[in-house]
Predict the 3D structure of the following.
Amino acid sequence: MTLRPETLAAQALHAIDAETGAIVPPIQMATTFARDGAYRLAGPGYARDENPTFVHAERVLAALEGGPPNGALSFASGMAAATAVFRAACAPGDHAIVPRVGYFALRAWAQKWGARWGVAVEAVDTTDVAAVRAALRPATRLVWIETPANPLWDVTDLAAVAELARGAGATLAVDSTCATPVHTRPIAHGADVVMHSATKYLGGHSDLLGGMLVAARTDTELWARIAEARHDEGAVLGPLESFLLLRGMRTLFARVERQSRTAQSLAARLAERGVRVRYPGLASHPQHAVAARQMERGFGGMLSIEIGGDAARALAAIGRMRVWVPATSLGGVESLVEHRFTVEGPGTPAPPDLLRLSVGLEHEDDLFEDLVQAIA
Ligand code: PLP
């Protein structure tokens, strides 16, 4: 019987503790594991090698992303997961492509790291397939994309870029944090590695920091290097975070489908009032056709609006909000508003009047009315 992703997620792969029958897995806090009389290990030896609680979370996400059962690795943060891919894929003299629009801290890190280690890191508009083709070089080892991408919600054609990367012998890695496996499974579109900041939708409650990678195949040199680096460098996910992540993923589909429905409706209602809205689910979005092809069940819980005027006007609008919480991050049950222009500083692609909205689980009308009064 092939179970559907909602079932796999809700039951955390039908988790039943073998010793007690508990339907909630125990949190394994042990950092070290005893050997038997012959000095053999039955399972893990040390918590930096492996911990049953994070292995369980990894297996759930691997199933949701359509990777092999042992094809996920958890990390202490999304950045720890993402940077592990760059460091494993690229050596001095290599070339990597990063998106012109995407999580700014990762782009900034990649450019600093590349400059220090002699890796040419090039920012490209990955929504433009011809631009990606033109940027590929014999030395390109990694194509990194994010879709939909912070904070403008650009959508990249995964299948088209996967074909180009494959042809060039480069790894395609996809930051799928905002799509989640509810809306997109990049491996099915040809990606080699999927990355999540588990801090966002996978955890879902703004109470854990974590990162995840899922590989399309585990028998590659790249994946072996990533696994070795996590073990040696030790940026593993803690047991409490693993437990919270497992619990969060059980409600992933219910949360994300509802957040996406609310986001779609807010986007339409705001656009109807003449507000400039960036949301992949609107026909006015420049890559709506690509999004409709590669996203399922909706277009995600993130949107941005441009309210006109300068940064001070945008900040004043945020100051008037009573429901939306002014805070960074995204993907939790509470709706957040952020002024990326202030947060990212010089070089940001975010216009000064842009408000980034992470839609939570509140009543849609409360969210709508609060926005309307704040931006009036
Ligand atoms: N990728 C995206 C799209 C993000 O929004 C973030 C965090 O904001 C990250 C990666 C980094 O994840 P973390 O904060 O868990 O290190």
Summary: The domain at 253-375 is CATH 3.90.1150.10 (Aspartate Aminotransferase, domain 1). The CA atoms of residues 86 and 168 lie 17 Å apart. The chain has a mean pLDDT of 97. The chain has two domains: 5-250, 253-375.
